[in-house]
Amino acid sequence: MRLDKFLKVSRIIKRRALAKEVADQGRILINDRVAKSSTDVRVNDKIEIKFGNKTLIVRVERLMDTTKRDDAELMYSIIEEKYERDFKNE
């Protein structure tokens, strides 16, 4: 499954176009390698996504073409959620 589709179906990122944009900016790593939106995602892959001052690291648990809201969280497990402090405002 393509990375941008996985991010949308799992509801990590709400829109596929936004998932594509984030990936193509080099802000997503799969297994510690920079990933493009078309990169294939497989079960047990580690995905690291940088959102501004937040970094989300997840492990792919399942691949599904469509999901209901409650089932979306079954597609991944959160390994780590990191927040970078903004030292300019301190």
UniProtKB/TrEMBL annotation:
Gene3D superfamilies: RNA-binding S4 domain. It holds the Pfam family S4. Residues 1-61 form the RNA-binding S4 domain. GO terms for molecular function: ribosomal large subunit binding; rRNA binding; tRNA binding. Keywords: Protein biosynthesis, RNA-binding, rRNA-binding, tRNA-binding. GO terms for biological process: rescue of stalled ribosome. Associates with stalled 50S ribosomal subunits. Binds to RqcH, 23S rRNA and the P-site tRNA. Does not require RqcH for association with 50S subunits. Belongs to the RqcP family. Key component of the ribosome quality control system (RQC), a ribosome-associated complex that mediates the extraction of incompletely synthesized nascent chains from stalled ribosomes and their subsequent degradation. RqcH recruits Ala-charged tRNA, and with RqcP directs the elongation of stalled nascent chains on 50S ribosomal subunits, leading to non-templated C-terminal alanine extensions (Ala tail). The Ala tail promotes nascent chain degradation. RqcP is associated with the translocation-like movement of the peptidyl-tRNA from the A-site into the P-site. This is RQC P-site tRNA stabilizing factor.
